[in-house]
Amino acid sequence: QVQLVESGGGLVQAGGSLRLSCTASGVNMRRYSFSTYVMMWYRQAPGKEREFVARLNSDGGSTVYADSVKGRFTASRDDAKKSIYLQMNDLQPEDTAVYFCNAVPGYWGEGTLVTVSS
Asked: What is the CB neighbour count within 10 angstroms for residue 14?
């Protein structure tokens, strides 16, 4: 099993920044190296479906972003800390959502709420 805990959400004005964190733990994290997991960020806005934000490939691989966040968000990982991060700059009201991290194939955190006021 893998447990994921997100943090760093909050209320920010349009144009502001936030940094989200997600830390992994659990039996599988002791058995397999965190670096071998593909990690993802998703978000779900009120009344909408969950959508992809960023993908961090395993073992130092590339990072892929949704077009809607490209150039504003930066995802990173620290395998030694079993953590991933999402630096979000120039936030806009349409970025308001619950942000989730995901360890492929199917482990999810509870999410952290980001609210951007206009």
From this structure: 13
| Strand pairing report for 112-117 and 10-13 | parallel
DSSP string covering 67-114, please?
TTTTTTEEEEEEGGGTEEEEEE-S--GGG-EEEEEEETTTEE---EEE
Element containing residue 31 per DSSP (H, E): helix 27-31
Peptide bond into 105 cis (omega under 30): yes
- 88: closest CA among 5, 48, 80, 97? 97
The span from the first CA to the last CA of the chain, in angstroms, equals 40
pLDDT in tens, the chain (118 residues): 889 999 999 999 999 999 999 999 987 767 778 999 999 999 999 999 999 999 999 987 899 999 999 999 999 999 999 999 999 999 999 999 999 999 988 899 999 999 999 9
